[in-house]
Structures are given as C-alpha cells and as structure tokens.
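Students often ask why we bother encoding 3D structure as a string. The short answer is that it lets us treat folding as translation between two languages. Here is a chain of 241 residues written in the first language.
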Amino acid sequence: MSKYWLSLIGSVILFIAPLGAQNLSIGIGAGPHSVTRRYAVEEEDDDGVDIEKERGAGLFVGPSVLFGVNDNVRVSVDLLLSWGRDSDEDKEEYTFGSIQTKKVSKYTYNEIFLNVPIMGRYRYSLGNVALEGGTGLQLNYWVSARSKSETTITERNIRTGVETVRREADETDILEDNDDVNRVSLSIPLIVGAAFEVGGGELGLYLRWDPMLTNLYDDDDFRLTRTTLGLMAAYYFKVGR
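And here it is in the second language, the structure alphabet:
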C-alpha cells in the first residue's frame, strides 16, 4: 500500500513541476498543534459504538515547495514531521491501620508521523498581503509510538515514622511486532491564512486542520484516527522566474 501511494505522489509531483517551473518557491514551516486521537469500538451486545477521545499537544516542522500555476493558484508539496505527546497523572491516598499509603501514577505517550500533503491553494492579493486557502490530500506514515507508565508507592508507618518507597515502570513500543497497525493512512488537510512580503521572500501564517480518513488499525471492530489542529508559520523564497 505504501509503495502505491508513494508512486502516486511522485507522479503528481512530476506532473505539476513543469507548471510551476517559472514560478517556484521553496521554504520551511513549523508550528504547534493539538492532537485528537479518536477511538471507536464496536459493541457486540447492543450493536452500538463506544467512542473515546484522547487529546494531546505537539508540533510539526519540515520543508515545503510551492509551484505557481498562475497569479492566484499555487500547488504545494510539503514534507512535515509531526510529533504528538499526551500525559496523565493520578494520585491516590489512603490509610489502613497504622499504614498511610500514597500512590502516584504517571502515564506519557509520544508519537511521530511523517506527513506528505499535496494541496491546491487559491490566493487573493491585497497589495503586499495575500489571503490564502487550500485543501488536498495528505499521505501519513506512522513512524513511532511509545507509551510509558510509572508508579510510585510510598508507605509510611504512622506510629514509627518508618517510610518505604517502591517504584515501578513499564515502557511499550506500540508499533513493534504489531501486525494490526496500518502505518500508512490518508488525511484531508485544510489551511486558511495570509501571506506577507518580507525580506525579499514571503512569510505565511496559516491555520491548519488535518482530519484523518482511514483507520490506523486493521480491524473492523476497532477504529483509531488522528486529527491535528494548529498554527503554522512558513517562510518561502523564490528560485524560479
């Protein structure tokens, strides 16, 4: 599947490159984003769907190429590294007899995706400022996903004051030897923002939304999708005429 989509993206780039040969810009973009992971599980008893959402934060960064078709239409091809992180902490305290117990559980999750969006963009110029919006198709590759849980249990004898501490930690590579994972997925990226002429180049500030279309797991009863919403700043400079 991944070879098919990579071939398709390569063919699209080869097709649009001559269109923008006379108006080519390259640049780099970066920005923060929120990450929403949506879990949908089919319930066997009542034929319903149990939906849960986990939210985290992250950032993306990477190079971008713009092909100018005309004064108002451009096509962009990006290579973005998208990192997301989620964390949770739970504290519990109780007393049984003379033993006072404090339990602190921490959970962290880190993931990395490689995104290749190809978008058509329309711009409306207002002097040195241009309003811009666009959409297209984005290929995603799930590079890594790791979770880590840490538990600290502190027990204190109220009578004697003696305190003992136990720590437990477990780290899991979610993608390792997991045949149920679909590393390749598709999204529909949408952007809206403005571009400004700065220092002989162009500075773009965009709001970016990437809802995922396909399931990250090869399971009809379990569906996992990932959506990002964030701000992106990108600086471009022209290399064509």
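Translate back mentally: The mean pLDDT is 86. Keep this in mind for the problem set.
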